[in-house]
Amino acid sequence: MSTFLHNRAPSRPGKQLWWYGLAALPLFACTTAQAVPAYARQTGSACADCHAGSYGPGLTPYGMRFKMNGYTDTDGKGTKIPAAVQINGTRTVPATGKSSNLLSSADIYLAGRVSDQVGGFVKVSINNNGQDKFNTQLSDVDLRFVAKDLKLGGKEALVGVSVNNDPGFNDPINALPASMQNGPPTVSGSLLNPSSSNTLAHRVIGASVYALYDKNWYGELGTYNSLPTSMQYDLGYSLGGDPGKLSNTVYGRFAYMKELKRPHQFFSAGLVGLTTDRQLPRSGPSEHLTDLGYDVTYQFLGNRENIIQFAYVNIMERRRYATTPAGSLPGLFALPRGVVHDQTAQLTYVFKQTYGVIIAHMVSTGTHDIVRYVPYGQPETNSNSFTVFWTPFGKDDSFTSIANLRLAAEWFRFNKFNGSSTNIFGVPANGTGTNARDFNAFLLFASVAF
Amino acid sequence: MIESALRRCLRGTAMVGLFFGWMLASPFAHAGDASSGADVFKSECSECHSPKQGKNKKGPSLFGIVGRPAGTAPDYNYSDALKQARWTWTTDKLHWYLSQQAKKANPGTKMKYDGLDDSKQLDDLVTYLDTLH
């Protein structure tokens, strides 16, 4: 996941450490568009049936069912080519520094059903590194086997297996950072936040068993392992972002979801957990990490003229560190344990499934630790985004229902970084310190998918 | 005198009863508002069915549904249950079918629908479906 901030984050003063925060660049996934017209061709459905804004990633309840059904639903008219392409262009106007125009990425999706029980989603991204050099990466993978239309105690049930490369990406509900691609920018973030440094996203492989009971109760249990560094490199990822060696990794998800008709609404409440022992670097000692989170979502769909979606997720990560390195002053050591929190609240309004507004508030906080989090001992990052978008197609009554264009403008604003709004890197006060708002940016996105 | 007044009263009651009985039994009993029905269609049906001619989604196109024999939309792969359902989709039949779980109305069908229990919305929906010609 490469963003404009990769290209402009200043080098940090003082001691460069390899662990949490200090080696991290401020990452954020800027309203990543995700569109798979191959699914529209396969099902005969319009983009707007599965996505409130006629463009991914946020799903309607119908889209969630399609995902839980293993991407296998069809209009029954034979085999369709399970491929789609998305091309993204970005204009970045940062608060400080030069503006840029980029053909930022081209995404190839191999996505669709293999049989009534087997389907999948594979995304290969060709990303522009900012100098018009392109890097090809294996991005999201979600391969599924599903047994549908089961009966359990007289109620409908569904059981599936998902093989994927990002814990939470396969989640059906619009809340977890991996599935919504909106993890808060962070210097200390949790494992479940793909914006964290040494993120698990795309560098692990795992499998989970999931079940949906009586349309409302969702449960999932799985495990992950990190890919060998040589394989990560072959898949297009730098070795510096290796998530380390993982062991005893367990991922769990439980959610209650309810779809209400007349008017059409949806709400959900869920819990998520991930625990692992990690060696980073791989030859080093092991640290123990446990993520526990909860999320709530609500959607008002009505007759789809006016759609409102809200999601809030709060993930807490408990850490038992492998080492307690010394600080810059004698007798000063890092704490042996710590806690971080990643929170995202997002409100979306869409008119006629064509014009939309997204407001997001993202906060990443953690235990005060003067050694791990220089210069102030605070890892807090606090940011907002405000996005407007236009998606003219992808509806049953539009020019085409199975391809789309998305034009978006986004204002991204940092209130705090490294726990401070001013002089965030602690440079001696001479008027040249970097402020959090220096990371602010105005971005224009154009995406086309077919 | 009293007897004739009683007879007139009974006749009047019978006429009123007959009128209301005719109202309930007639096609007007299902008369709804097609524009409201279009909204019901969008929230209840449009994910799986298109009102456009020849556009099948997860379910068949509902263009021309009223008057169409069950299981006969072109190029749609119906379940055996609906292929063997020997009925024609009249407004009454649609009213009956959509007022309950699809799997109860037609055991073995692929259609997953829990039924529309709001009679006003059902009337509106069927009236809207009747406009799709």
Keywords:
heterodimer, A: 450 residues, Porin, globular, disordered N terminus, B: 133 residues, mainly alpha, Cytochrome Bc1 Complex, Chain D, domain 2, 47% helix, signal (chain A)
What does this protein structure show overall?
The complex is a heterodimer of chains A (450) and B (133). Chain A is mostly beta strands. Chain A has one domain (4-449): Porin (Beta Barrel). Chain A is built from 5 helices and 16 strands. Chain A has helices at 37-43, 47-50, 61-68, 177-180, 229-234; strands at residues 83-94, 100-113, 118-128, 134-152, 155-164, 204-213, 217-226, 245-260, 265-279, 286-300, 306-320, 337-351, 355-366, 381-390, 404-416, 441-449. In chain A, strands 1-2-3-4-5-6-7-8-9-10-11-12-13-14-15-16 form a 16-stranded antiparallel beta barrel. The longest helix of chain A has 8 residues, at 61-68. The two termini of chain A are 22 Å apart. Residues 1-31 of chain A have low confidence and may be disordered. Chain B has 133 residues and is an all-alpha fold. Chain B has 2 domains: 1-30; 31-129, Cytochrome c-like domain (Cytochrome Bc1 Complex, Chain D, domain 2, Orthogonal Bundle), CATH 1.10.760.10. Chain B is globular. Chains A and B meet through loops of A and helix 2 of B.
Helix-strand layout with pairing:
The complex is a heterodimer of chains A (450) and B (133).
Chain A: H1 37-43, H2 47-50, H3 61-68, E1 83-94, E2 100-113, E3 118-128, E4 134-152, E5 155-164, H4 177-180, E6 204-213, E7 217-226, H5 229-234, E8 245-260, E9 265-279, E10 286-300, E11 306-320, E12 337-351, E13 355-366, E14 381-390, E15 404-416, E16 441-449
Antiparallel strand pairs in A: 1-2, 1-16, 2-3, 3-4, 4-5, 5-6, 6-7, 7-8, 8-9, 9-10, 10-11, 11-12, 12-13, 13-14, 14-15, 15-16
Chain B: H1 2-25, H2 34-44, H3 80-83, H4 91-98, H5 102-105, H6 119-129
Helix pairs in contact in B: 2-6, 4-6
Radius of gyration of chain A: 22 Å
Helix content of chain A: under 10%
Q: Give the strand tally of chain A.
A: 16
Number of strands of chain B: 0
The largest pleated sheet of chain B is described as: none
SS-derived structural category of chain A: mainly beta
Report the C-alpha radius of gyration of chain B, rounded: 19 Å
**What's the CATH H-level superfamily name of the largest domain in chain B?**
Cytochrome c-like domain
CATH topology of the largest domain in chain B: Cytochrome Bc1 Complex, Chain D, domain 2
First and last CA, distance of chain A: 22 Å
Q: Low-confidence runs of chain B (pLDDT<50, min 5 residues)? A: 18-29
Largest sheet of chain A: 16 strands, antiparallel, barrel
For the largest sheet of chain A, list the strands in their spatial order: 1-2-3-4-5-6-7-8-9-10-11-12-13-14-15-16
Number of DSSP helical runs of chain A: 5
In whole angstroms, the N-to-C terminal distance of chain B is 58 Å
| Quaternary structure | heterodimer
Order of helices and strands of chain B: HHHHHH
Protein name (chain B): Cytochrome C2
InterPro entries (chain B): Cyt_c-like_dom (IPR009056), Cyt_c-like_dom_sf (IPR036909), Cyt_c_1A/1B (IPR002327)
Domain Cytochrome c (chain B): 32-133
Keywords (chain B): Electron transport, Heme, Iron, Metal-binding, Signal, Transport
